[in-house]
Amino acid sequence: QVELVESGGGLVQAGGSLKLSCTASGTIYSIGVMGWYRQAPGKQRELVADITTDLNTNYGDSVKGRFTISRTNAKNTVYLQMNSLKSEDTAVYYCSGTVHYNDRVSQDFWGQGTQVTVSS
Known about the structure:
Oligomer: single chain
Distance between the termini: 40 Å
Order of helices and strands: EEEEEEEEEEE
Radius of gyration: 14 Å
């Protein structure tokens, strides 16, 4: 059983910062790509950012230059530093990870989500 647990969400004023963390635990051989997605009310879930094991990153257009994704492989943890937050960043943020059980078998997992609310 694998579990991804997020933390760090909350309420912040526009222009402020928050840092999200997500740690994977359980029977894990290795974790491939880890990422953050978000879903605002009435909208589809969208990619915020993702990062490979060798630290290559990819960002959604709306967060480029404001958000930074990073990870600590030894701790199976991914982070999302969010700066210059805007009201439109308000959403539930979900962590994701591709967990490898061995060299051939993998499965995608999601965290339970953490609410980020930006007040204007």
